[in-house]
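User: Run a structure prediction on this.
Assistant: Running it now.
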Amino acid sequence: MNAIQRLIEADAVSRLVRRDASLFAPEIEKRKSISNRLGWTDLAERGELRAPLVETLKRAITEEGATDVVLLGMGGSSLAALVFERVFGTQAGGLRLHVLDTVDPPTVAKLMADLTPENTWFLLSSKSGTTIEPLSLYRVFRSWMNEHMEGPAAGKRFVVITDPESPLQTLRSKEFMRMAITAPANVGGRYSALSLFGLTPAGMLGIDLKALLKVAQAMEVECAKPAEENPAAQLAAWIADNHASGRDKLTFIASPGLESFGLWVEQLVAESTGKSGIGVVPVIADPADDLAGLGSDRAVFIMREANDPALAELTATLQGAGRPVFEVSVDGRLSLGAEFVRWKYSTGLLGFLMGIDPFDEPNVSEAKQATLQVLEGKAAPPAAVADIDGVWPAYGGLFEGANAPADLTSALAPLAATLRQGDYLAALVYLPYDEELIAPLRAALRKVTATTTIPTMVQYGPRYLHSTGQLHKGGPDNGAFLVVTARDRTRIPVPGSTYTLGDLYRAQAEGDFMALGFHGRRVIRLDLPDTRKPTIARLAVALETALA
């Protein structure tokens, strides 16, 4: 029985719309947990009531002199905002939005240097109210603002976005922040794009929230229809059927300007399906790559603007070559409102088809706990086994105990020797968010894919910890991982803490290195002496030599 028939037989769509948790779990206790994660099914419909709050806030801070808004968040609290910023940019009458979802000291220092305190406001965004990255960034930027204005005035520059009664609510009152905007507690972070976690930063940009929500509402209606005519059910069934046939690498391609939507899809799919030893592996691809040479483990999703003939031709080429392709044509950037809805419904139904709970993330806390242990000096990652002109390689998981290599190419040899068809290779980089800097790494990995057909990807830490990190540890054992860190000396203290941002940043990399090793994953760490372009280029040459 194919997937669409299974959805019909189980009455899955209407049960999802009714928020029937028995669709995902027979156990009563587990159903209770799932029921508390199903509040996203009508977010667009309810969003109309919340849009005026966002518009009022934007108007107020603009009148007070705001030109820039910085969002401090991670994962589900930041990725939708990042999509809105990259796809729409600042609209007429809008404010400049800076999405800060890293604690990399040079990145934070550069942003701070580019901002003017008198014209800057902040959105402190965390569903749980306990996420260490945005809370640490808040301490840094609150101290920065305190240096330029008196305490109460500085506090009014911060707006909290969180769940009702979270610890951030208490912190807001204690530290005299401007206000708290609360989102529904029964919506998980990665499903919250059309809650106030996503709508608030979108509104700051000047995006027409009513028009965005109108498009999303229309898709909510479509996603409540029977499976045979339901756009989300069709996508979920297509992914599930391909996964069952061994095509577990969901390759995402988008028209120019829409590429960042793939980052949000990547989190949604990886974190929702990557558990219990199974999972769909999202791969964000470049249309310029040689996609005709993809391996047999690929299924290709194309999000094409109606006026993009190049992607229309690519769809025809791939289909002509017998490749499984699912194409969605969007008409204008506001159509993203509908695509958020399509993918959320699709992922929920995909969880049913794969026999998993698509709303939990059981392995995410492992890296968090390991990070805290490193910060507190209670644990240490595997030590480096060599010093190769300042680069320190270390081996974890399957490779623990490997011999000291003589050069960078041989340092990567153990990883290269294990790669097989059906695998994927992820470079987990704790480097500045600078695409020009890591361009050589991306180019080297593209050559690896072209030579071996093995999917490769570059993922920024700590962002991926709140996204694909669940899949890396809880999904199938077909991932190989290269953790890249650098010994940057930019020091930014975190007021009220014993650690600096740099300490936290390294501890996150080391904590995940340990967590991957605990699961026996194939993982190597290369600790670079600096983040200069020649150093990154040297690593890229070694990657291509060892793996291509």
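DSSP finds 22 helices and 14 strands in the chain.
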